[in-house]
Design brief:
By secondary structure, this protein is an alpha/beta fold. Helix content is 34%, strand content 16%. The strands form three sheets. It has an eight-stranded parallel β-barrel with strand order 1-2-4-7-8-9-10-13, surrounded by four helices. Strands 5-6 form a two-stranded antiparallel ribbon. Helix 2 packs parallel to helix 4 and helix 7 runs parallel beside helix 9. It starts with 31 loop residues before the first strand and ends in a 16-residue tail after the last strand.
Amino acid sequence: MKLLSIAFLSLFAFTAGSQSAEPPPPRNGDKLVIINDDGFSKFYGGYYPTEGALRKRLLAYKDTQLAVFEWCFVAGSRVNYPSEIHELIGEDMKEFPRRGDKRAAETLRRFRDEGVDTLAVVVDTCHEMGISCYASMRMNGDYPANAWDGQMAPMFNSDFWHDHPEFRQRDEKGIDLTRLSYAYPEVREFKLSFLREAVQRDIDGINFDFQRHPNFFRLEQAMLDAFRKKYGEDGLKVSADDPRWFPLRAEFMTGFVRDARAILDAAGEKKGRRLGLSVRIDWQKYQHWGCDIETWMNEGWIDCLIVGQYGLGGYEFDIAPFVKMAKESGSGCAVLFSEECIVRGHDRTPKEDKAIAAGTMTPKRSTHITLEEHQQRAQKAYDAGADGMHLFNLSYPQVLKTIGTSEK
């Protein structure tokens, strides 16, 4: 594993008094439109074979209402840019789960060898179009050691994950649940190290994607110790959904967000502007995940609250309570409806990929929200007070020409 310096931030750094949020302004419309690119799928599909191809596809957003382009730079716990401290996706692998994984890994290796910094290229191209660029971080995307015949973990999970099983979540029987636990300071520091590299580029902000993937705490020793200290009871004897866990999880995660805001503020001070922080949560589960969004807004730490539902798209929920919460905070934080654009489908498995390559299976296509549905659903969110739309897994780029304008 590459050496990672542990330099814990003071909980009080850069937090003297509340700050005002500064969400990005709408572009070519009256509503804020954000999309997320996972930073992997188009490498997987061969759409970004060269730096020029990457730039060309991004330039297609120039005359749309897109205001913020989120570029995911962390997949699993590896990265898709040339890093000084983190491993590249698929680095040193020779056997891959699927053909697309091999294509993506080889492309990213070649980019690195050619001196192409993918994150910097994306940022510069966005700025050329007048679009803001947020580096998006999947908060806990590691794969089980045995996933897909044991090939997913070497592809996407970091050396830190492999070297430190003691920092993973555990169930009531002490069984390893794969994902790292934010209850450990070493894990929080590991996650913050991604931010420290990202802010060295000319990004406009960071997006924390809590929907990729929960959970963030379970019944590991650090959580059991915290429960006993606060309540004097054995946490193994209560449900993982017991509300008494919520403030404990929130304490750890709020400390993490506080430190992230400090990193952004320190970098922003050098750049002469505020760097944004947005978070994507589940409207039902955010408290279970330790996301104390009310405190984060009250402190002025987050600029955009993106609210959706974990799982496939087509869901319905009332965003008005979150709009009210943001207004009552007085921070100026924007509230966006998060649209998962896929309503039916799944990631291709290695078995399916082999069958398709052999000609014994026809590739299956996912079902997406239609253009008309996008517009109708966006208007419904706007009528409830949403400041804009966040689109995940978008397949109809045409919607970006109309979705940023509400009916008057």
